[in-house]
Amino acid sequence: MDIDSKTYIGLPVVCLTTFILFRIFFDKLSVYPGPWTARVTKGYRFYYDVVQSGGLLDELHRLHKKFGLVVRIGPNELHFSDPKAFFDIYSHSNLTKEPTLYNSFPFHEASISYIDPVDASTRRDLLNPMFSRSSILKLQPVIQGKIDKLISRISTSHDEGNCKPIDMHMAYRSATMDIITSYCFADTFDALDAPGFRHPILVGLQTGVTSSWILKYMPWMLHAIENAPDWMVDCLPREHQFFRDLRQFSSSQIDGYALDPTLLDRADQPTIFHQLMVPNIKAQGHVPSRRSLMGETMALLAAGHDTVGGVCTVGTFHILKNPAVHTQLVEELREVWPDVDSPMGYQRLEKLTYLTAVVKESLRLAHGIVSNLPRVTGVDMQIGDHYVPKNTVVSMSVIFMHLNPDIFPEPERFDPDRWLRASSERLSDMNNNLWPFSRGSRMCLGITLAWCELYLIFAHIFRRTNMELSNASEHDYTTFRDFFVPVWDGNRLHVVVKGVEGSVE
Ligand code: HEM
Q: Where are the membrane-spanning stretches (predicted)?
């Protein structure tokens, strides 16, 4: 071998070795423990996200057990499992969203994906009035209408006498999708009318979520999917056409409003798009661009349906699995609401102590969004007990709060009573560690809508229907994979409806 070919092979090897050693021993995060592969390459995360199919959280559990409260999970990324760190990461204004994740969503120029805090707060200021308590109280008839329709659909399975198991996983998501589309446009694609609650868009969204991580690593794919010609999408199986279908529904709504702005005034109720499309003083008289309106629609529909639907699904499973919980919940509801045909609204329901404990416990075990939501430090700062340099990606999945045995003893147990029998000190500890909606300036915009939907859905379902689990196993809703939202292992929630009380339309 002559000198040139030795150099040709040797130089890259020396550079690579130096780079690896630098990353492991000398760079700004070298003091933090973690697997050496994670210190060197983002491939470590790719492996758990994509190859292990949403397996990162299991790995994080293992790492924290081995290394303690902070671990290095990427060349420039730390993950914490310390409640103090959660407050620091998600409450401080000098951390911003990490773009790689948020740019991989089809939510262009939308509330959830804005990185620049000024853009985010401008959009929030514009949307906030639609998510205030008084707006949500006015929205109740719309929410109630969709719940009535859900119960009516459920009751037909009972009337037909065949007691066919109902897929509540899809039924709840159909109701929550119809609620949020109605609030956006005063129109829906009628997910609740689909046979078996299997509207192709919803089925597609459920299937699509498990391949979504790839977009984070190959962002060009999002562009390709968004711009795929119709003839190509038409060749795909029906459930893989959902993305095009959802975009078509959204763009026809937006274009309809743009062509005929009087449509906005003709809706029976205020709509989010009325708020967005009428030049608004809060947005300095600007109307968001069409791209931004599309992005916002996709964000609101996605964020508004699967989260609430997921909490209802997980809560219903646990309630039906625990006869004592089920009985106590129904007794409380019967006591305050003896005549089931009389109206029952959010403001009365939120005062019920057992129902409140059931909703909180459902939020705790369903989590909402399980991923470690990444933020970038804008300055050198203290996170938990650790010094973290500027421009580091930091995160903490909320599951490390919700499943922390020091805060919630026997954390895997669905136990609404923990919220009722706790000492005031423990209660405030639990409340201070329940953050399904995250916190700080980027916390959930739809939190008030979500609480309202959860109270109304749980109360109406459990007061007006008598249902039992069908084909459930001990292991359902115990383990999940992380696809931003949890995708649960085991059987999906199916119920058999034994009876419906009161009149249904
Ligand atoms: C139980 C139900 C819900 C849960 C657990 C939940 C949870 C969350 C969480 C954890 C975030 C922070 C995400 C991040 O930092 O990237 C978030 C953001 C957001 N959520 Fe929700 N959410 C729920 C329901 C809703 C509903 C009904 C809407 C209404 C459309 C909604 C709209 C949003 C929006 C627009 C954001 C982005 C806020 C921002 O980045 O400034 N969510 N949600």
A: 6-26
Calculate the dihedral angle through the C-alpha atoms of 196, 505, 353, 407, rounding to the nearest 10 degrees: 10
3-state secondary structure of 385: coil
List ligand 1's pocket residues with C-beta within 6 A.
Answer: 111-112, 120, 124, 180, 299-300, 303-304, 307-308, 311, 368-369, 373, 436-438, 442, 444-446, 449-450
- Residue 301 alpha carbon, nearest atom of ligand 1: 30
DSSP H helical segments within 322-352, as ranges? 323-336, 346-349
**CA-closest candidate to residue 365, choices 404, 324, 325:** 404
Binding residues: 444
- Whole-model pTM? 0.94
| DSSP tag of 32 | S
Among 307, 313, 375, 457, name the best residue to mutate to test ligand 1's pocket (greatest count of ligand atoms within 8 A of Cβ): 307
Q: What are phi and psi of 189, to 5 degrees?
A: -100, 20
Q: What letter represents residue 312's amino acid? A: C
- 104-163 pLDDT, tens digit each: 898 999 999 999 999 999 999 999 999 999 999 999 999 999 999 999 999 887 655 567
Gap between the Cα atoms of 403 and 81, Å rounded: 11
Nearest CA to ligand 1 atom 1: 308
Ligand 1 centroid–CA 165 distance in Å is 31
pLDDT computed for residue 160 by the predictor: 55
CA-based nearest residue to 298, from 100, 126, 97, 109 = 109
C-alpha to C-alpha distance for 337 and 324, rounded to whole angstroms: 20
